[in-house]
Amino acid sequence: SLDDMTNDLHKRINIAENFSSDLVHEIRNPLASLKSASEIISETEDQDKREKLVKILAHDVERIERLITDYSQMLKDEVALSTEKMNKIDLISIVQSVVDDFNNIYIEKRGIKTELITDNYIKEFKILGIENRIEQILANLLENAISFSRDNQKIIVEVQKNQNDQVVLRVIDQGQGFKEQKLTKIFERFYSNRPDKFGEHSGLGLNIVKNLVELHGGIINASNNINQNGARVEVIFPKL
Question: Beta strands 126-129 and 87-90: pairing type?
Fold first, then answer.
């Protein structure tokens, strides 16, 4: 109805306005750093100091570029999602394809193997979804798990059904686990706690995952492994 369309439009406008405000806030810090570094570099003749300042300038430019790129992608996703149609799809075939892609890269690169585990007695795990968005969800979760993993560790991807007959996708790593007391924080926009060695990120990855999961009517939650190192992120899809 017209009222539903109007309400949906207002909701999208509010989301865009809030996101834009957050983006402006995040860009202010590297801009301030850029300004300070550029002022100092114009005043100093110390070559070592100038080289360090140039690195700071390059780093801040990359950070701003990354924020804008990820923000633009989110806006494109928002537009695309409003036109994409959900279909009944088998989660296993999609997950296996993504797992194979990651193994082709990270087994050789870092010795990290991702293993898919399913309930063998269930032939299909049907959900209502958009195939490339499900791929995007899992790829982001695997990238996050790999960033916290050491070389030669293993990542487990589980696809199961719970007691409510809902399909559950679970990514389990052997890394350092989540340090946050409030684990919902990791899904907030621009929040990032990745190790320095992995490089700086915009902090949008898990927020994008959360939005995509909710688009599918699902629930996402995170926890640390019990009695062992590592963490797990679980996505529960609604029952068909």
Answer: antiparallel
pTM recorded for the entire structure: 0.69
Q: What is the CATH number of the domain that holds 14?
A: 1.10.287.130
Give the total number of structural domains in the chain.
2
Which structural domain, as residue segments, surrounds residue 148? 87-236
Last residue of a domain, one of 51, 81, 111: 81
What does the alpha-carbon distance between residue 236 and residue 240 come to, in Å, rounded to a whole number?
A: 12
Quick one: 156 exposed, middle or buried, by C-beta within 10 A (0-12, 13-18, 19+)?
middle
**pLDDT, tens digit (0-9, with 9 covering 90-100), for 168-183:** 999 999 988 877 565 6
Residues 192/204, Cβ–Cβ less than 8 Å: no
- Tokens 């916290």 label which residue? 148
C-alpha closest to that of 69 among 208, 209, 212, 216: 208
- Kindly report, residue by residue over 69-127, the tens digit of the pLDDT: 777 776 666 666 666 778 999 999 999 999 999 999 899 989 999 999 998 778 789 99
Q: Of 81, 107, 125, at which residue does a domain stop?
A: 81
Query: Of 171, 170, 172, 176, which is closest to residue 148 (Cα–Cα)?
Result: 176
